[in-house]
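Lab meeting, action items carried over

1. Structure of the two-component assembly. Owner: GW. Status: complete.
Input record:
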Amino acid sequence: MNVLRVGDDALLVEVASGDEAEALRAELLRRRAEGSLAAREIVPAARTVLLDGLTDPAGVARELTAAEVPAAPPRTGDVVEIPVRYDGPDLADVAAHWGVAEREVARIHAGTEFRVAFCGFAPGFGYLTGLPARYDVPRRAAPRTAVPAGSVALAGPYTGVYPRSSPGGWQLIGTTEAVLWDHTRVPAALLSPGTRVRFVPRGHRGDP
Amino acid sequence: MTDRALAVVRAGALTTVQDRGRPGHAHVGVPRSGALDAPAAALVNRLVGNPPGAAVLETTLTGCALRPRCPVTVAVGGAPCRVTVDGRPVPWGAPVDVPAGALLDVGAAEAGVRAYVGVSGGVLVEPVLGSRSTDLLSGLGPPPLADGTVLPLGRPGEPPARVDVAPQPAPAAELVLRVTPGPRADWFTPEALRVFTTLPYRVSSASNRIGLRLDGPALPRSRTGELPSEGMVLGAVQVPPEGGPVVFLADHPTTGGYPVIGVVRAADLPAAAQAAPGTPVRFTAVRRR
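Predicted assembly:
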């Protein structure tokens, strides 16, 4: 694997795909749990995993450089179900990009098993992958100044759910009442890297 | 007035509750947060007899004024400033007893940016993920103080330290930041790397707890295209396509898509947090330890 040094005590490990990043993240977590890796943060992203707060960055760098990307772990663990009403203001635009009817967007989206590739942007905001590449959509040309909390949205290869109201340029396809972030809950984040997710249709724009 | 609390009379430009932050949650998008000048926060805690992780107040440029509802020991450190109790000058950088109902005024920074106010017992707001810090990027922790805010205080622990005035570094006239190149130095031209580590920058007034923003020479890229989002560390120097470099401070985003040209040594970040707008800044390349 290609390992880049980051400051004095962090490493950025580059891999070829989101699936490889997930496999590496799972392996690094396993090693931290068994005590053979001392890292404060293990942060996956699109094509990388960041290791921060390492006690022996040079040693870990040598080891990972020589290592192959680990095999993908089996998909285990519960599937988090997120109820969605497919009523987003960008549903028609997304349907046009996909070349399908609006109701087909809901059917395709709700028929896909997603996985949280990584988090960022806001606490509890997950970048979910699972849709085939032909369903990638561009960001909106003009970002919205306020996207409501609970908006289910698409951008590039990702699906995300806004944990709270914030500015955003993603295409909004629906809304959920699921609570993505609650700091009084353990864990606070409903979605964390590796979580399997299914969206369960709870109606569509135009439904009574 | 035996209530263990502190009333905020004048919140100042931006005063927040800070402790050592909430590291360990970056993978769910939670910034580390915490006092920007961590040694100053630790010092004022020690001066008032608090454990090092107790929550203190972090002011920004204009100080703040507080009225304790119980007798407390306080200490003010970080940015040097005038400190008074009911109008009478008291020492900065030393433990000071403040009677219940008296007015503690922490004046405007005479140098530097952020003063730290330690109070015996510590500020006891409800912790979020193990920290009482206000995170201005994600909104976790208590909101910034407002006039009239009442903050609960903990029980005092050890007796305050016996010192007259504790030595603290003076804010530098020129900020020198030691930086290790990478991880994305290869996204910049060799000329950009030379410029970055030789020519002067200046602290922008747009700086905040998220990042120290700098004005200065542009850093041309050697490649076009977008970097996929990747994890970010404290001290990372991110270079957006428009505008100057940004040195990430405690409330920085956990992932980002602009290339990081280098990472500032953690030991230099407290001084960066005290660099007022307009301060000249120089980056110097160092070898990784």
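2. GW to write a short summary for the group page. Key points so far: The longest helix of chain A spans residues 18-34. The helical segments of chain A are 18-34, 57-66, 91-98, 102-110.
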